[in-house]
Amino acid sequence: MSNLTHSQYGLAFHTTSVQLGLSISDFSKETYSQTWDIDHKLSTHLHQYLIEFIGSITWEKIAFIAVAKGPGSFTSTRIGVVTARTLAQQLNIPLFSISTLEAFAWQIRNNYSVDALVPVQMSASRGKLYVAIYKVKNKDQKFTIILPDMVINPDTWKQKIRDLNIKIKPAITPEKLGFTVTSILELAYHDWRQEKRPHWSDTIPFYGMSVVS
What pLDDT, on a 0 to 100 scale, did the predictor assign at position 209? Predict the structure, then answer.
């Protein structure tokens, strides 16, 4: 496994909802996170908040960046992903893209036992749902993805849950999700420690255009 070296940091931001979330950590002594209820002002305020949030930490100390890739607001997700890609390209560092749904599930993982299946859903447009299902491995390992992110009709979603014999109700994401930026950073650090170094160009936003009927 590979840890960050002295004075290196991971930086994450979450822009897919009405709440902006930023988090930075050296995963040893320093961890800072902050959220702003920014709504439609993201495009004009993101860079200002980012610079103020990083403060005295120089860009050269950022070892990797992580970003929520969606699902969520089309415009806000695009702004976050484009910003993350630009920074990672300029700094020549890895960029990890993390599902909004997985980050939320990771945030509440302690509510579930090992081997539990965790269905997660988020409202989409036109009565559809963004959904995913994860399996808890243990508290120190990432989930096994049972059903990847998709947009789906509610009836089809209910049937998938029945087919997997899931008895618990789906975890429904709140309107404000910026607070899960800490999970974005933790999940990315899991991959960093596994020697994964994704190129910035590999990060593509998930908009969920195709509907599973």
Answer: 67
Query: 9 and 57 in contact (C-beta within 8 Å)?
Result: yes
- Domains of the chain are 9-100+176-212 (3.30.420.40), 107-172 (3.30.420.200)
21-47, pLDDT tens digit by residue?
999 999 988 999 999 998 778 888 899
Of 49, 86, 73, 62, nearest in space to 188 by CA:
62
Phi, psi of 123 (to 5 degrees): -65, 135
In this prediction, the residues of the chain whose per-residue pLDDT falls under 50 are: none
Task: Kindly write down the DSSP assignment for every residue of 51-67, as one continuous string.
Answer: HHHHTT--GGGEEEEEE
The residues, any chain, with a CB within 8 Å of residue 110's CB and separated by 6 or more, are 139
| Model pLDDT, residue 201 | 97
CA distance 135 to 115: 6
Can the peptide bond before residue 71 be classed as cis, meaning omega within 30 degrees of 0?
yes
pLDDT confidence of residue 7:
82
- Please give the single-letter amino acid code of residue 145: I
